[in-house]
Amino acid sequence: MVDDxxxxxxxxxxxxxxxxxxxxxxxxxxxxDDIAKRANISRPLIYRKFKNKEELFGAVYDxxxxxxxxxxxxxLAGRGTKRDKLLRIYEIVVIETWAMMMNTPMVAEFYExxxxxxxxxxxKHERRxxxxxxxxxxxxxxxxxxxxxxxGLMADMPSAAVLRKRVQLLIERFxx
Length: 176
Prior knowledge:
There is one protein chain. The chain is mainly alpha-helical. The protein folds into two domains: 2-51, Homeodomain-like (Arc Repressor Mutant, subunit A), CATH 1.10.10.60; 67-175, no CATH class. It is 80% helix and 0% strand. It is built from ten helices and no strands. Helix 5 (69-77) runs antiparallel to helix 6 and helix 9 (140-152) packs antiparallel against helix 10.
């Protein structure tokens, strides 16, 4: 039991340190030594949890989004209008995540690296958001258009407040 708690704590510290390094230095320039130093652990300890930097990066990307889905699913199952639910889901999964990372030097490279290095993980998270969105918009076609449009809302690296306004406008156009 104590080992489980220690492992959970160590994993959390490691993921937070890795996220911080990836967002500060970028995927390519981040080394496992950088992450170990930031986490205040030894590099061999990283290898006890992850086989390489790519696997650790995937875990960071998953960690960034996985905790958000249960809350989004509660919104979907709860009461409210389609418009309100869609906005809240995008606040949870997209806007809050964007706000957490947008002021870091390598945020754009973080997302680009996941698409390049681990496309299956990126696709998994796109599918999750697609399904949440489709449950509200109803059709696959409308969901595809909505998601393509929502991706474009971040092209100029807006503040979280600007992104929220853009998402609100997009939702108004789709569900009124």
